[in-house]
Amino acid sequence: MTHNPRYPLKHLSIRVPWHDNKWNGTICNNPQANGACLVLKNCALNRDDEKEQLLAGKSIENLEEENFPVCIGERATFMAPFSFTRTLKHPYAKSSPESHGHLKPTTVNFPAYSGAAVPYHWLLKGNAMEKAEVFDLNFDLNREPRLSWAKNGNDNWVQETENQRALLNCFFEHLEEDTSLVFFYTKQMPFVEESGRVLAGVGRINKIIPSGQYEGSNKRFGASYWEHMIMHSIREHHKDGFLLPYHEAINYQKENPSFDVADLVVIVPGDKQFEFSYASEHVSNDSAIRVLLDCVKSLEKAQELGIGENNSFSIKWIHDEIAKLEKLRGHYPGMGAALCAFGIEKGHFVAAEIINKLKDENENPWKLFEKVLDSPEGILSDRINELIPYIAKKLYKRLKEKSKPVRIKYLHLLSRFDLSIEQAKTLFVQEEREKIGVNRKDEEYLRNPYLIYEDLRQTLNPVSLNTIDLGLFLKVAENNLLPDQLLLEDPYDLNRIRALTIQQLEYASLQGHTLLPRKELIKKIRDLAITPPCEINSDYYELAEESFDLDIVNEEMKNGEVAYQLARYRETRTIISQNVSERIQAKRHSIKVNWKELLNKALAEHTEGDPDEQEKRAREEKAIALREIAENRFSVLIGPAGTGKTTLLTILAGHEEIESNGVLFLAPTGKARVRMEEVARNIKVTAKTLAQFLIPFGRYNGEIQQYKLSEQYCEGTYQTVILDEASMLTEEMLATTLDCLKGVKRFILVGDHRQLPPIGAGRPFLDIIHHLRPNQIESQFPRIGRGYAELNIKRRQGGAKREDIQLAEWFSGEPLEPGADSIINHLINTPNTEYLRIEHWENESDFEKLFNAILVDELKMSSIEDVETFNKSLGSSDGRYFNFREAVKKVESWQILSPVREKIYGVRAINRKIHKQFRKDKVEYARTKFSKIPLPIGLEEIVYGDKVINLVNSKRNAVWPSVNSINYIANGEIGTVIGQFKTSKMKFPGRPKNTEIEFTTQKGFKYTFKGYEFAEEGNNPLELAYALTVHKAQGSEFGKVFIVIPNPCFLLSREMIYTALTRQKDKVILLLQGNSFDIKELASPTKSDALKRMTNLFEKPELVEIEGEYLEKNLIQQATDGKMLRSKSELLIYQRLLDKKLNPLYEKKLVIKEVEKLPDFTIENDNTGEIYYWEHCGMLFDAEYKKRWDEKYQWYIENNILPYEQGGGENGTLIVTEDKPSKVEGGETKGSISMKEIDIIIEKVFAR
């Protein structure tokens, strides 16, 4: 095929599935482990795992077609060095025999080194009619056949051969053999967790072989197969194209576990994702340049590490191709979009014909366009000239003739950038700009074109900064460049530095930071894959600060270093810090109430006999906490699951005075909102998700999920506001909520700060806690301070003695009890108890076997084939039916959690495995003629009885009953597919059409979902939920929890492990790769996500580098030698031992008779051979704490490690110190360390 000069030259993207053997014409080496290819519909629905596993690694060259893997149809063989044939069958030949029955199976040749390109987006009828109009194609809807099964007109694809040819020819005539590039990409790779398009390789299009007609096509009706064979130039030598070295990187990681393969990944820019969608699409010159620049960075990293071969050839090839692309793009790649924005509906056609008439690269297409306005002869064909309305011609001339033709100059400026029509219209049409809240004049964009990126960066149609760069930095510019010879040559242009700074601060906010040190920004900008590079330094930055205006503000690190912050985060900081500080210092409320009495009354029905001592302490703790949060204008209520936070809040909200003045309960998730509603059902409380509450006040944009400030307020309605799951709040979420509410007497933030920090910027809950937390509160009971209430006594069945709770404490970041190390021994010696079970696996095949065995055992199934018992575990009454208002009660009785979505132990593969095992019969039945349940929906074939999770916040009117329904489902709500189930009373013909789901958060209501909502390229509203990521499970609670912990796993953090270990009510089962001791490493502060975030909510950031990670010093206890300790008391002792030159070892493992202990400090005297073990006890006045210490102390004695007062023992000398208890104002008991006593002991024992 040849390029049609009517069309602008494009490049091509082709989607392929992930293949573990480099797409070389073989079946995957381990097909079952390839979960990444299952994001493609064909693979998800039709892959035969067992069959492919038997043929693993075999070349299809030696296989019969019946044994080909399903991924052949998804271009998984584009690097096959041989040709093969495949039989294509028209999908409607059987379903519509009247129109398609004569079309016969057709044998098609797939050449070596080729991929079959199918532009699905163009072949959808709705899009086809638009393309036909835009490109003036010979397309006639009347030629389309009427399908027997589509009487309601729901046949979406173009069928008739002439219509197909018109569309396919147009699509492929945008390409030029030997010039256009082809980009192979995947929707998912096993080592990439983020969503997006992942580049696999790039080559040149050598030849395009058009598709043909199906055999049997005739004059009455014919149809073409859509596959055009794209023969490409990629070979192993990489001299004319390349594959990125992902497979080599996977092998490299096996020898270097600390290496993350994702570091080499090239993700297609988000604003260009459409060009890499629908299996095959056009790619613009600018997009090609941007992707290739990212490839250079990836290949340079690979070359530095010695990963892959011929990387230098690939890098040279890329640079050569970029030079060609820069010439191909011209100076006005957005001229067509600009003309459309100006009002010429088919402006891109006009632009294409004008550009094709240019004699050389120095001729300006806008000058030619202006000639056309007067006389089109010889320039435009009559057909194209007719596309320019008379009024548009008149308007252009009028604007051009103005003394200051700003509008025309701005139009010319927009044409310099590779914009979509939507982007061009938003930018050019002033009213469209105002709709998205941008009130800027055209002159401002002319002075600083980078404002285009800045203004649209938080909208539905963002324009990349790289797009602006490519339009402003031209290698060879024409003499009459428009507008006004606007051209940048200086990579240090101040406006560019400003925009790059904003870009990097936006990226940083996605990682949780609200500011960055200038030196870090310099490093990031210098490392960007941009052209020209910006090798910035602090001198340039000081100069650039004058251009920052009000969008970037100067801040300071603790050490005086300059830092920069987006202005909106200074605003959120001001709102939060001012609210907290002023409210904490304000006069307390006076409420005359006996909280202890109210507490006892509320708990009476749950108490048999007299409360035990631990229960009395728990109630004492809660009563004082109630008083604190009731009397303060701002407070935090913190504590892990099982400490009674919800009970306490119910008592508070039910107090007559508080309830009558309005109580608003807010939560970031629907789960938390409903949990509070259920507990406080007899109290007048308004409960909403944050998004639900903020939308009416213009403070939440659901389209882009953005929390923002506004001038609308909720005034005087609520005097008490409770924000639950506060650890999930970003600074913007909290700030706009605080700012929105007026007339509030008490704000209460509730949650467990040890859980995962928010997805987004900041860690406000943790920062507020650190700001309010009294010094050395860890040795106080109860832990109460001004505006600070911490619950610690766990009263869930089994209490603090539960092994699962003890294990979770390891990852809390809090000081551990003296006997906490016993849990590790427990894991080794008693791996399966009432509350905790740990099982080990070494590799992926081990995991599969172990998973099946554990699932069968824990769910009490007779075997993995026991579908009936499995169904009953999820709420089925009889093992078959999932009844409305009944099944949903048990759907959360167990849950599988994994930190990752990909790989065989990830969420996607586990859900598929369970679904294939236990829903196979339902899927098959749903497809039968007489089915009483709807067809399966989506790639995962969601069907009756499935456990699902909702993925987007959305309003839904299709709910029954409609009375009292909230018509809203929040992201993260879990439910059961309970219908539609056709009963004998239902008289409609055929099977049910709708899928009905009852969610645990809205029991008694069933929401309807339609099959069309589940598109392969779209964002599906639901997915299977037998397994969830830990992030998705935050805020939820389940009966039994299975936690998969792979090793290595770069996503695992201390907070993630803690969150996972606190989701269960009954039992947790750990499936751990490696041994039990490996998991302890994740308890280190260096594995904390929250500590790595840079924020300045109350204090200037002070970073310390530890083991290659930068942590917030204000949030850790660190000695002068860099050692991190758990508590202030431990730090004081350790530092004193250091100062005395005693070289203490912190928590060094001590093993005697196969029992492991971790003494606080070990001191070894090399000269005498003596060993001293120093234990410091913070809360011996707590009975539970003392009991555990006594057990550890007894172990020392039994193993001949005796106190120094007794002269020591054979195996060492024990030193025990403690925080001395004393009563403080308010009745609390507080422990305090005596450094004088520590010095006396050091002098006495060590003579130092």
Automatic annotation (TrEMBL):
The keyword Zinc does not apply. InterPro entries: AAA+_ATPase, Coronavir_polyprotein_1ab, P-loop_NTPase, UvrD-like_helicase_C. SMART domains: AAA (SM00382). One of its GO terms (molecular function) is exonuclease activity. Residues 631-775 form the AAA+ ATPase domain. Pfam families: AAA_30, UvrD_C_2. It comes from the Bacteria. Keywords: ATP-binding, Exonuclease, Hydrolase, Nuclease, Nucleotide-binding. This is ATP-dependent exoDNAse (Exonuclease V) alpha subunit. It comes from Zeaxanthinibacter enoshimensis.
